[in-house]
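Sync notes, pocket subgroup
Present: LS, DG
LS reminded everyone that the earlier model was apo-only. Rerun requested with zinc ion included. Inputs:
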Amino acid sequence: MARFSYQREEIPMQVTAVFQCTECPTWQRVDMKDENEKDCPICGAKMRMENKELPVLRNHI
Ligand SMILES: [Zn+2]
């Protein structure tokens, strides 16, 4: 498992739309804007769109 680190001073954070599974901690970034419902790839439950604070991605600047 990846080790989580919380370096909030160094990594700029941004509120991003994600799909959050209703049954497990799995979440995914929303890739397609017209997508508003998705099934969890791990457990198959419904995922719902939420806003999550994530590190800013720099590769699209
Ligand atoms: Zn799930």
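DG: The chain has a mean pLDDT of 83.
LS: The pocket of zinc ion is lined by residues 21, 23-24, 26, 40, 42-43, 45 (CB under 6 Å).
Action: DG to write up.
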